[in-house]
């Protein structure tokens, strides 16, 4: 008989085969959803970065240049606006435009994204429109935006208007290929860390009710079925459920892909179909996953098929050897080695991660067996003894139940360790006070920027308070070098973090670092030296502010020629009421230079952390879902496998609650211990990852503990699957096998 | 209205009916079990022997009729109370032992006591004594998979007796054993039950065994067909 027909017939007749088929179906569906989501991630990142590549153009040599471009981020409140200032040098500039960019704006022309055009319309002109002064000559199409709601402006200028922050560019198309390293790394980590539990889930689904099936197949074998017939039946039975599950998963993944496109990253969401998989990949997933499931199921049964009696009384099981534990330090060292030698290349990081995951899979069963041994020796209640024996007897199967939780916790504590430490190092940054906007420019442009900004302010009835602050490099007789901010002391108290110093009566140098002897200044590193008057008083600035540690305040009277040389910061104090108008006044004059302030810098850092935390939480929830599903399926399967034993125990008066407690203990206790181990491992790997991020200070934080709680919760929830399955076993006749 | 007897039976079934769809597994069975007596229940396959045991023990609810334990009605108890009753007052020996694979022989015997909140050391000690009594010294640490069929059945008997139940239900306890082992196992069960004063209901196909017991109840088509002595 055709194995498929036979399989269908068994399924129709046997309620328990049907139950396990449904569990396989659900497991495969969940795994398919995840795999298809993860598989779509690299492609989505690529598509988005290809679309938005033009927003970060690559500089070229002066001969090849057709235009000058400055790409910056502006802020309106806490909202980031992508701003590209452009000045065409040659008529060839607009020859090839990226898809979705309608036109290269000439001087005093702008092209806006629909969302930005909308935002401009909703706000007073002086607050926002003024920054993009000029006529709107076009609107970006979706092909050029990260998401439909991205805020982008392409602002046209005369070549002379742009500051030196603008770079020579041959064609806007050259920007294509800019990549988002962090997101690519995260996608890679996600694939390594989530793919494994996905496969575990699939495997546990396919191994479901293995004991029962082994018995039935041993009977078939004894009745004269050939190994091929037996394997064919199992394959057919499993394939039916797995294919249905894969199709269901693909179906469910489609709306999910739409949901995912609303998750913001790097200040913008995604186009709705960024996550849509090509048909070929969908087909591949729908074929590969069921094939894996069938393979896992038939491999597990090969033994029975060839040696039926051996399977019928298989009692001896090998205990995992202690060498498995070695996998953890080996993988740890390999990981650190990879970090050290690979200079933190993504491949090295991901390979190291994969190793750590593999090590957990090797060491997990050994640990499980050891924990089981502890329970077996120290039990007080039968639930613990039962749980302990089960762990001790088949630690691999028992570990499978907690593998998902382990990986979730590992990933989570790693990510949160990294995030916590990044958060700890955030802040600092600017020598100016929070209410000060500033722009860095060359001395020539700075004069124009100050003048135009003050004109703009005046037009809006605000005080003309923009000033320029030249920056120099100051060295003393002993070669000690600090940055010199050329600004009179009373202005410095008002505008900078030198707010607490006492101003001396005559022109002086104020420095937190002690300086001695003759002082001289350079306007650019290694440039011509300018001596300060020999009798310049040097005061020690009494401040512990680390941002000012390497900075000195130089009175302008000491360097009269400074205003025409070197790098200058145009500085503009604001009040909360005037902030956006002042920002517009400065931005429209800045010639493509970025308008900065401490709060927007911090907001940007916060936004990045929020992105990471969001992705971490989504990853954790996903892993939790996987872990829960894995553990629940395994717990249900273990009840079904032992249904006769449990049925007779309940018949002899064991309350369902007591058995359920034993099964919960079986699922929860190893998960509990495993989560602690995984948490520690995650924190360790997190520290390893932190070495990749320059200037970070690895530190423990409370966030690292969160995943442990999650893991325990998942284990407990998963363990509750035992009770309904037991109830089902109880409702069945006792002796029908 | 509780019926009155001079020698009150420890277990009694009155007008027991159990239906599966339209089919009657039990079609009105009356049975009295006196304390300490051993009863053979015989009958062709499918006649309702297992159903009778399960209904009397409260594993299955009856569709009609009543079950009394020491004069108290027990068929209307809820599942929790019936569970407790089965755990404390009854013992069970199934055809295949149905021992817990993960536990040793000794732990299997101790299990009902442990679940009944007897302390670990005490339960294990009692279990070992029962194993010795059933001629199983030295096998206490073995798992069910490492025992022969007869040995496993003796462990099951020790488990059924260890909490000193009033009634033991044994459904074809030697059905899977060869004749000689079966006889020895049955003898062990009856001896042990006699010692504790437990009544025994044994479902068996073995005519010789049935004949050797003081009382036999024959079931046919869900009814008591004949009783010896009548
Ligand atoms: N769970 C069940 N579902 C349907 N019919 C059953 C079930 N259990 C027993 N029966 C039927 O009830 C009758 C009595 O069964 P049973 O008590 O097991 O007989 P015995 O133990 O004497 O062989 C049989 O006809 C059997 O087919
Ligand atoms: Mg029967």
Please explain how this structure is put together.
Chain A: Keywords: Cell membrane, Membrane, Transmembrane, Transmembrane helix. Chain A: Pfam families: FtsX. Chain A: Belongs to the ABC-4 integral membrane protein family. Chain A: Its main location: membrane. Chain A: One of its GO terms (cellular component) is plasma membrane. The complex is a heterodimer of chains A (737) and B (230). With 737 residues, chain A is α+β, with helices and mostly antiparallel strands. Chain A folds into four domains: 191 residues, no CATH class; 118 residues, no CATH class; 245 residues, no CATH class; 161 residues, no CATH class. Chain A is 55% helix and 11% strand. Chain B has one domain: Rossmann fold, CATH 3.40.50. Helix content of chain B is 36%, strand content 26%. Chain B has seven helices and ten strands. In chain B, the strands form two sheets. A six-stranded mixed β-sheet of chain B has the order 6-7-8-3-9-10, sandwiched between helices. In chain B, strands 2-1-4-5 form a four-stranded antiparallel β-sheet, covered by helices on one side. In chain B, strand 4 and strand 5 form a beta hairpin. In chain B, helix 3 packs parallel to helix 5 and helix 4 crosses helix 5. The longest helix of chain B has 18 residues. Chain B is globular and about 45 Å long. The N terminus of chain B is likely disordered. The interface between A and B is medium-sized, with 27 and 34 residues. Bound molecules: adenosine-5'-diphosphate and magnesium ion. The site of magnesium ion (MG) has 3 residues of chain B, from helix 1.
